[in-house]
Design brief:
The protein has a domain of about 30 residues. About 35% of the residues lie in helices and about 0% in strands. The chain is built from 1 helix and no strands. The termini are far apart. It comes from Serratia marcescens. Keywords: Transferase. It is an enzyme of class 2 (transferase).
């Protein structure tokens, strides 16, 4: 099943498992999620969950 998310069911085990572009995308996603949480508008799929950033 494809979700359209390049990181779906992938684990961050080694830095070398990701391309530079994927790492930049992960950092941007993390920053966006952190900002959304601070503003009280975290995505529903993340409500009640902790995110390690």
């Amino acid at each position: 099943m494809s979700t359209g998310n390049a990181f779906y069911q992938r684990h961050f085990l080694r830095l070398m498992d990701f391309t530079p572009a994927e790492l930049q995308a992960l950092l941007k996603l993390a920053a966006d999620l952190k900002q959304a949480k601070k503003q009280g508008r975290e995505p529903r799929r993340l409500q009640g969950k902790n995110i390690a950033l």
